[in-house]
Amino acid sequence: MQKPQIVKWMRIGKPYLSKFAVSAALALMILPTGVRAQAVQHIAAIVNDELITAYDLESRMKLVILSTRLPNTVEVRRRIRNQVLRSLIDERLQMQEAKRRNISVGKRDLRRAKSTIEKQNKLPKDGLERMLLQNDVPLSAMEEQLRAGIAWSKLVGRRLRPRITIGEDEIDEALDRIKSRQGQTEYRLAEILLAVGGPEEEENVRRAAEGIRRQIQNGANFAAIARQFSQSATAAVGGDLGWIHEAELNDNLKDIVPGLQEGTISQPIKTVTGYRLLTLRGSRKIGETASKPETVDLRQIFLPFPKSAAPIDIEAHIGLAKTVRDTATGCKDFGLLAKEIRSTRPPNLGRLALKDLSPAIRNVVRDVQVGEISDPVKMSSGVLLLMVCSREGGKSGIKMPERDAIADRLMQERLSLMSRRYLRDIRLSAVIDIRV
After folding, report:
1. Which CATH number fits domain 295-392: 3.40.50.300, 3.40.50.150, 3.40.50.720, 3.10.50.40?
2. What is the pTM for the complete model shown?
3. Chain centroid offset of residue 310 CA
């Protein structure tokens, strides 16, 4: 990464310097030169009226390294420094906005959050604090992060959630989409989203995303890094996006997700809000999770086109295939016909899982009843006929989610988008002076 530069956001049309910043500047001016330099070095950033010290930054980096299992090396610390500082800046902005809106975080809120973390990590009561102490991580670093997360969650819930209405027609549409997708593919994905506040940030954010990707490839925990760095609402659940249907992938992801192997991580993906990293946690066929996967016993006849086949030759082969389709009366008869017309492929394909067939063949076979023959399938090298001799599994259908669960998912998606915009607007109106 390049050496970080001083970045300032100022209110449009009105340069702003807080009384606190003026006082701090005057105080530094009257200090002896050596003392003044040392004092400046201990300020990592000024966020409106508040300081983020080098100690704050160092403490948070220790917490991040511990929670993500990143190696504690000079190179790793250099790579994560800017992103950790950005997280601290965003948390200060969130706390300032929460205070302005009279949102408070009590001791009970913190105790509940710590207890949740202990349960998630199978730690005994107060085990979290002991673990931090053993690893030389100040308790205040964790408490500040928790306090900011709780305050922002309360603020978003109070100010943004009431503005969102999920209609019954939207839930009906979501249910209809699920019903129509049985047998199709869906992916279990998780994300890390790094937002870009303006054009001047884009290159640094992209490099940060590449650095995070490398660390995860080297063994760092994806979910832990998502909790620390991701600026999506999914950060609270380790970046988990749940199951996403193939039709819901946007144009960029349609080319990327199917090529991911389970457990691998994508290259940084540019979005309208920043850069996104995705990992594939699994894939499945909708409607097959509650029963055995659907399998079919298939027979085939393949009629190859002659070399340099003219359109009349192709039509003749298709006509012959239709005759065979209308003539065959059963699987045994189908096999004899294959020999008689000299099919160039073995007639018995055997029992195959529907999900393992190529999309073109799967789409044909799915609608063919047992004992029936498909319409001729024109391929690049010939004409294919398929007969389904038996079909097993895949009978349970889709286990439909509850309406409340669908409404909650739609609510969270919109709330996440609105909260990112809210924080972006706060950031743009703030005075942020980065000193490291």
Report:
1. 3.10.50.40
2. 0.60
3. 49
